[in-house]
Specification:
Blueprint (H helix, E strand, L loop, with lengths): L6 E5 L10 H9 L2 E6 L6 H10 L6 E5 L11 H23 L4 E5 L9 H8 L5 E4 L4 H8 L11 E5 L4 H9 L3 E5 L5 H10 L7 E4 L7 E4 L13 E5 L7
Helix pairs in contact: 3-4, 6-7
């Protein structure tokens, strides 16, 4: 580890620690503070991935407990009103650790720069302290690999959309692509299913939950029950059907 870097965004991969990079493991083992986001009363997914390498270590850990998660829609003013001060306070806490000479690693499920909470800390700290972001296998890459579904062929265009978008916007985006990944399912699953059906992609869609983990579930979306309760950290993939030789 560089003697000058004090702040790391540490991508740990899609879930199975075997997919963690050598660089990520080195930082994980040596950082003074391991930071993870979580819901109140629960350990974060990223911290759970790290268990296989470092186990529980209260003296090294800093838990950043979200004030809200899915209780308030992301486009509601109360959502930003709750999270902005949370990120400001977290930034101040981590900056104090760094200024005290300690290395701080923020643990990230998947890749830190792909829909990650880490980014809200990164843009507040990147110009204040030496920073390194350690890339990782993304959750969507783990999903299409474990599903045995090559996502793009030939000139296929891949579109990645969050399930939090309005149904009409989801349908518009999905109707103009060859392959797709829909992130952030949870309570958005019925809306996403309807958008995929309207776009003519329902029959090709595959639901993937906890890809690469012991609790992994891979199910063709058309056979998934209408009342299925999807966790937020699940996704849908729609493989492309492009040029093959």
């Amino acid at each position: 580890m560089s003697d000058t870097i004090r702040f790391f965004g540490l991508g740990l991969g899609p879930g199975n620690p075997d997919y963690m990079t050598v660089r990520a493991r080195r930082v994980l083992e040596s950082a003074d503070r391991l930071v993870h986001f979580c819901k109140r009363g629960r350990r974060g997914n990223a911290r759970t991935i790290a268990d296989a390498i470092v186990g529980e270590n209260p003296e090294r850990e800093i838990a950043l407990v979200y004030p809200v998660t899915t209780e308030i829609p992301a486009d509601h003013p109360d959502y930003a009103a709750a999270l902005n001060p949370f990120y400001e306070e977290a930034t101040a806490q981590l900056l104090a650790e760094i200024e005290a000479g300690r290395t701080v690693a923020v643990l990230c499920e998947g890749d830190p720069f792909f829909y990650g909470s880490f980014m809200h800390l990164w843009w507040r700290l990147k110009d204040k302290v030496p920073t390194e972001v350690v890339p990782a296998v993304s959750g969507m890459s783990g999903a299409w690999t474990r599903a045995g579904a090559p996502i793009t062929w030939g000139d296929d265009v891949l579109t990645v959309v969050p399930g939090t978008l309005p149904e009409a916007e989801l349908m518009r985006r999905l109707s103009s692509t060859d392959a797709a990944v829909v992130m952030k399912l949870g309570r958005n699953l019925p809306k996403v299913r309807a958008a995929l059906k309207s776009a003519g992609l329902l029959e090709r869609a595959i639901y993937v939950e906890r890809a690469t983990m012991a609790e992994e579930r891979i199910i063709p979306l058309p056979v998934l029950p209408d009342d299925f309760d999807a966790p937020y950290f699940s996704l849908i993939i729609v493989p492309g059907q492009g040029r093959r030789v």
